[in-house]
Amino acid sequence: HGAAGTGHLLGVLPSLALPPSQALLYLGAYFMAAVAAMGAFGAIMGRLVHGGGPLMVRRIMYASSSFAVVLGVVWMGQAWPV
Q1: What is the mean pLDDT of residues 11-35?
Q2: Cα–Cα distances in Å, from 74 out to 7, 50, 53, 60, 63?
Q3: How far apart are alpha carbons 65 and 54 in whole angstroms?
Q4: What is the DSSP string of 12-29?
Q5: What's the chain's average pLDDT?
Q6: 2, 26, 41, 69: which is deepest, by most CB within 10 A?
Q7: High-pLDDT (> 70) share of the chain, %
């Protein structure tokens, strides 16, 4: 979908510094964790939609996106040279 940007590149970048056997193990673990996280997110959202309805999902999405924006502003403020 492209919404993740370069996030996955940064996730697999450490494998370049590892020997091939360890890099393969790292990438396998990364793959399994990414699939598990996406599956868990889908399951949670499915339960929320089924149990709480679309209004509940909309509120959760607004809250999580607002938190992400606030966190991004805080990180930019911390990185801003004084």
Answers
A1: 90
A2: 19, 34, 32, 21, 16
A3: 16
A4: HGGGGGS-HHHHHHHHHH
A5: 84
A6: 26
A7: 90
Q: What 8-state DSSP symbol labels residue 62? A: H
Buried/exposed code over 25-56 (b: 16+ C-beta within 10 A; e: otherwise): ebeeeeeeeeeeeeeeeeeeeeebeeeeeeee
Quickly tell me which residue has 């924006």 as its tokens.
Answer: 69
d(CA 16, CA 19): 8
Q: Which residue has the tokens 């450490």?
A: 14
- Is the pTM here over 0.70, yes or no? no
- Tokens 């970048």 appear where? 13
Report d(CA 59, CA 65) in Å as an integer. 10
